[in-house]
Amino acid sequence: MKKAMTLTLAAALFSLPVMAAGDAEAGKGKAAICAACHGADGKTLIPGYPNLNGQNEQYLVYALKAYKNKERNGGNAMLMQAQAAMLSDTDIDNLAAYFSQM
């Protein structure tokens, strides 16, 4: 039983980068609306808003899905929940790939 759990955990960990792999070029097309708050180059000019350029891809996927599912409620969550609600899982993966590669 312990060996099976270890193998399952190892398989999950090795598959994480694949699960979050999006199309950065497609993400670039979707990122225009993000620029209003997060800057055209992913560097915000608004104090308190996060920079997205160079952010970890898996973290961005996690964060956007958490907003979409209304699991994040602090700060500007209401704004981000509305934005994320309009995104498909593929859109989220693509945006995360785009910003992480900046």
UniProtKB/TrEMBL annotation:
Keywords: Electron transport, Heme, Iron, Metal-binding, Signal, Transport. Transmembrane segments: none annotated. Coiled coil: none annotated. InterPro entries: Cyt_c-like_dom, Cyt_c-like_dom_sf, Cytochrome_c_Oxidase_Subunit. It holds the Pfam family Cytochrom_C. The keyword Iron applies. PROSITE patterns: CYTC (PS51007). The keyword Nucleus does not apply. Residues 1-20 form the signal peptide. Residues 22-102 form the Cytochrome c domain. It comes from the Bacteria. This is Cytochrome c. It comes from Photobacterium arenosum.
